[in-house]
Amino acid sequence: MKIYFHLNLGGFSNCYVVANETIREAVIIDPGQITEEIIDKIESGSYKLTGVFITHNHGSHVHGLRTLRKIYTPKIYAADWEVAGSDTNVITGDGKVHIAGLTVRYMALPGHTADSMVYKIGNVLFTGDTLSAGKIGTTNSSYSDFILRNNIERKIFSEQDSTVLMPGHGPPTCVGGEKRFNLDMVRSGSTYVRPSEQLPDE
Amino acid sequence: MYTLNKCLVHSCKNLSLSTFDAQGSITDEQNYCLDHIPDPGKAKELIFSYIKTHDVIVGLNTAGITFTGIDLTNKRFYGCNFQHCTFTNLHSEGLRSRMSMFDFATFSDCTLLNCNMQFTSFSGCTFSHTLFTGSDMVQNNFNGVQSFQSSFDDSDLYNSRFISAKLVNTSFRNCNVKKTIFLDCIQENVSFKMSNTREAVFDRRGSALAQGLDEGGGSLF
After folding, report:
1. φ, ψ for residue B27, nearest 5 deg
2. In a domain? residue A45
3. CA of B216 to nearest chain A CA: how many angstroms apart?
4. Residues B179, B200: contact at Cβ < 8 Å?
5. What CATH number is associated with residue A8?
6. Mutation test of the interface with chain A: which of B61, B119, B123, choosing the one with the most A Cβ atoms within 10 A?
7. Which residues of B touch A138 (CB under 8 A)?
8. C-beta separation of A121 from A98 below 8 A
9. A117 is in which domain, residue-wise?
10. Alpha carbon distance B82, B79 (integer Å)
């Protein structure tokens, strides 16, 4: 498995191409913007693009889908039907998809948006906007915030500390790093607070 | 890249070290971690020799190994895993790294001049007497690092994060810190002379990036 990272300058979101070198097939996660560079990567590697996975239906994560569908005919997986209309393979809850010779595990992790999904391929978690290095995604109510924190603890922090996290924005991180240094989770009184680093009340 | 196989010992949670075929190329085979490998000396030797003989290194897993006095000048690391490694007296100029993980590693007396490390994670690392002078460190994760007597002078730290870092006697002179986040940092004798600190984020309220967070509205992304 090879992962190529691409920074979308419009929206500063991260797009990932995950390629299976053995069978020359690839999937894309969050095509915020499709550039020549991404197309080159797929074409020069002679990869067949078989799937697109959307972490949530926000512009900076889906805008490139239109361009992509003009060139390829990938299966589109998202929790929101509106991403690609009737061409969307709507996924809900937790489960797995076998595609491009890879097993893609998906987990519903609402909070940032109702349709937020996290994908796991190998030992890499693609977290979208639910979690980025040191921060959690924004929410529009205290209830969403509570749900998001709970889901992160249950579904992301339960993974091995060495699991790599590839977020929708910002640098990569790992589960161990987030348990210790994620400001929003530490301040929320998560079970992972280090006693020596409890912060004063705001 | 990123096969990140688990150690063959069922109860062990560590990642296994990279394995090599007869031609000396990295394979996807499962292996033991550094704690359980029957011959750790040989495994380390194979890894050192692989690094020495290759300039472009993709998907190498060396979790937990100690590197002493190694020269990484002009080496290129893509998707490599150096979590919990120890680097002592490392010397490099023009090192290049993409999507590599150095989480919880220790760098002691290391010189990494003019390196180009992007989308790389150094979360929880300890830097002691380590120089990153003149480097491109765009969109890197330095959350929770502990840095003593170290220098990032003349570096581009655009969109990197130093959340919950402890910075002691560390200098960021003449750096590009646009969109760099220094939230919840402990700073002792840290210099940002000649750096564009107005573009960096030092607290939630002063940051355009985090505006509206406290009200539960707005958007960070």
Report:
1. -115, 170
2. yes
3. 6
4. yes
5. 3.60.15.10
6. B123
7. 213, 218-221
8. no
9. 2-197
10. 10
> Are A14 and B138 in contact, with CB atoms under 8 Å apart?
no
The answer to whether B188 and B207 are in contact (CB under 8 A) is no
Q: How many domains does chain A fold into? A: 1
Topology adopted by domain B56-221: Pectate Lyase C-like (2.160.20)
Domain assignment of residue A80, yes or no = yes
Strand partners of residue B101: B81, B121
pLDDT tens sequence for chain A (202 residues): 889 999 988 788 999 999 998 899 999 999 999 999 999 999 998 999 999 999 999 999 999 999 999 999 999 999 999 998 989 999 999 999 999 999 999 999 999 999 999 999 988 999 999 999 999 999 999 999 999 999 999 999 999 898 999 999 999 999 999 999 999 898 666 554 443 444 444 3
Cβ pair B181:A134 closer than 8 A? yes
Cα radius of gyration rounded to whole Å, chain B: 19
User: Do A161 and B124 count as a contact with CB atoms less than 8 A apart?
Assistant: no
Which one-letter amino acid corresponds to residue A128?
Answer: G
**Prediction pTM value:** 0.90
